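Notes from the 1:1 (GR / supervisor)

We went over the backlog. Supervisor wanted to see one worked example end to end before approving the batch request, so GR pasted a single chain during the call. The sequence is below; no edits were made to it. Supervisor asked that the structure be written out right there so they could see what the output format looks like.
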Amino acid sequence: MSELLNFFIEPYQSYSATQIVLESIAAILGISSVWYARKENILVYPTGIISTGLYAYLLFGWQLYGDMIINVYYFLMSIVGWYIWTRKVDATHFTPITQMTKKDHFFAVIIFLITFTGILIIYKFKPYINSGFIAETLSDKYQYIPTDYVDAITTGTAFVAMWLMAST
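Structure output shown during the call:
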């Protein structure tokens, strides 16, 4: 049990107080955004925008580029959603939930594989990105670490989930 607790607490030991406060605010606003979404309240958008913006900033600093990309995507989609919501023609739009078809399964796998591969390519250039894009840091010697794969999996899964929500 103590190893599990250390697993969750250990990263925070190297965080600054500002990072901890920003992540706490982002988490609270993220939970609020989900609650507002459940209530179909327009506050889903400003709380989501602030939350995902903070997370994108923090994740870039922590070099978790896949999760950062997800949050940038959600940030932008929240702006679009807020705009669309405020321009609603009527309040009775209804889109039925459907079952996934074989075609949907195929596209879900393709989206996952493209996203997973794309994130791993980004990690291949991690030393170059971290150096501020200095050409001398380009190298074929980058060794992937486990968090790179976890980040690529969670990013791929999130992109598939967003696509399924929008299309099925």
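Supervisor's comment: The chain has two domains: 1-94, 95-168.
Batch request approved.
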